[in-house]
Design a protein that fits this description.
Number of helices: 12
Strand content: 25-35%
Radius of gyration: 25 Å
Shape: globular
Structural class: alpha+beta
Largest sheet: 10 strands, antiparallel
Number of strands: 29
Length: about 600
Amino acid sequence: MDKFIVNIIHRPEMVPEYAEKVTGHGKAEDIGRKALLTESLDIFKQQQRIAHENGLKTTIQMTYASLFNEEAVALAKADHEQYGDEIALSLLGLPCKEFREKYQTKDFCIWMFSMEDKKSIVDDIFAKFHEIFGFYPESTGSYYMDAELTNYIKEAYPSVKCAVATCWEEGPKAYHTCNNSWYTFMDGGPWAPWIPSKQNTHAPAANEQEDSGIVAIPHLSRDLIACYDGNGSNFGTHPQNVLRGMIYDSKTWEYPYLYNLIDQYRDLQKYNNGYAYNMMFVGPAWMNKMGRWEAPYELLLKSYTDGCAYYGQLKKEGKLVDMTMAEFADYYRQKKSYTEPECALWRDILYGSDKQLFWYCDPYMRACVNMDQGGAIVDLRPYAAKLEWPVGIGTKHVQDASYPFLIQEKYRAGYFTHYAGEGTVRSAKLSYQGEEVDLCLCRTKAHFSQEGKDRILTLDPVDIVFEGLTVKLQTRIHFEEGSSRIKMEREILEMSDPQAEVVLDEYMVACYGTTEYPEDMTGITLRCEGDGGAEISYAYQCREAELAGADAVSAVIPAIETKVSLAASGREAVGYVKEGYAFSPMFTLGYRKTVSDKEVFATWLNLEKAD
């Protein structure tokens, strides 16, 4: 039976982010201000009431501050007994008088502390939780939890089985829309639940040995197009994300987009063996009496009430199952295998376009295919490397927790670049008598199917018109479960001149990084592999090499411990590699082959951990 599962998560955040200054009305900062504590607790009670009136159970993630509040503790215990709510422990909500006196800091992001402080903070919070409730929690979470932190928690507190572990695409895009002041960079992770590896939170575990011991869920379920193209904080199934994005009718206070977004998550059952997931993670700051996001309190309250009512109605109709985080972790362990991917064929429901993206995530990669660019891969994260990436004070990455990309059209252009050079993309070109057309210019639509363990995208054929010749070409993309490979098949369905031949150039332009800014490319080795092969050590010199019948063309990127390669069917294709230059610090891997009518040419993109 198909299942659409929702986690409703509330936290009695006694000192909500942003809220102190609003509640203080210009007074000097006082995070112990009674008005702030009282309002925060009142909002938490209201959120709980709204969920319960709609027949929904919640996970109550107690914050550190709330553990010192007798009323918050009593409320959690009462709702656990009456409604079956889970009492969990959040690593958000650290700021309070007790925390600041002990740690002498205003930092509040657990993953940004030194590892020594992370352990000390975790031990303090878990001990206080146990003192209050008499047991250790089964769930925890933050905006992000790095691997070292997760591993420590699981080792020290084995009862923990579920955690909020990353915020999808919370990177430079979010940073720029917060006046360059929101120093949380965590692009490149899954958008749906996964089992994090011990090596890197973003990269799912491939087997039991890599299993960190928890099931991770994202911080909010987000629009997989609008969030990718823009600031994710405006496009989520948290109702007040939608208000922050101003995606509602200012006269009627209606927001059909919210329901469409929830429904599109329900639709993901089609691509994931009958399973779909959604979550809502809410603190009290979102319903501040002073209003938020240019919206009055009354609209904040209405949006949350309507959102819960929609979930409640779906539950009454038998279309939704509400679970606590711990319950969901048990379900997920039974439902999913390590190598089973998460897939999402996502359509635009906000801007009125026909845009379609396909997202794929497994223990070896995260990839995004853009049908508006002819089925080009526009985002690729090489999870196969299981890159260890310590985060926080005392590491090389104090704030940047992102998993590095090889391809990322938003940060390193894509097919459409402003000036000379190339952007990162995996696509193909066709050439005929001096004319060249890139499939990135050929909009299409995709259809999903599954054959055994292969997830297949079959794209609608496109017509490529040259002077004197029209070619109808179809693309099929195979994601081979458990293989770390993506197979691309191009089939010439028809030519206006059946005797003609065209050159098909399968290529990948790539680099590495986590932001818009280029990294040092020296150290990368490009190879044409096979008898008579060639090698280029990257030095920004625009060099090229090619080899007829190459076994593979590859790049080894030591900085991210990754090897990426392309291979081709048959021996007739010419493999090539290209080195970039300082203004265009990319590298290119590719195969060229002359093809004719009714011919199929296949290539494979493969990801490996570099030796």
